[in-house]
Structures are given as C-alpha cells and as structure tokens.
C-alpha cells in the first residue's frame, strides 16, 4: 500500500497486527508496531492490546498450559479436537 502512495494509519496497522496474530505470526507484531510509531502514528488502545497479546503469548509456559488444561474434563470428541489442534500447532515448529 505504501508503494501506491497510501498513507497508513493506526487502524491499518492494528488490522495488520491482528491478521498476523490470526495466522500465528506473533513474532512479526512488534516490528509492525515499531513501524507504526516510526511512521508518526500514535498507537491507540487496540494497537497496544495487540502488542500485549503478543507478549502474553510468549510468556505462557508449558507448565501453565498443562495446569490450565488439567482443570478441564473432555469427552472423546473434544479430546480428539484438542489433540488435532496441538498436532497442527506442533507441525509449525522445526523440531
């Protein structure tokens, strides 16, 4: 968009950060946030929340996730759904 002369605003940057979070590209959110500030845009409440979400995601530990999941009781169908989700997430990492 910048190449076409379109000036990006805080709504555009916030939408981009939200899209990055939705496609599991959390690591790119701080770069977009910094670019927003450098371009002269003042981050609003939503933009700051996007950045916080990224950092909260990074701070979640495996133990915290296990403790949280242990408080739920799943039937076979729900367990299978959680297992598929975990496998999907794990497949995105180079292990």
UniProtKB/TrEMBL annotation:
Q: Where are the transmembrane segments?
A: none
GDPGP1-like C-terminal domain boundaries: 50-92
Q: Which UniProt keywords apply?
A: Repeat
- Source taxon at top rank: Eukaryota
Task: Report each PPR repeat as a residue range.
Answer: 9-43
Please identify the protein, giving its name as recorded: GDPGP1-like C-terminal domain-containing protein
Please name the source species: Gossypium barbadense (Sea Island cotton)
Q: What is the lineage of its organism?
A: Eukaryota, Viridiplantae, Streptophyta, Embryophyta, Tracheophyta
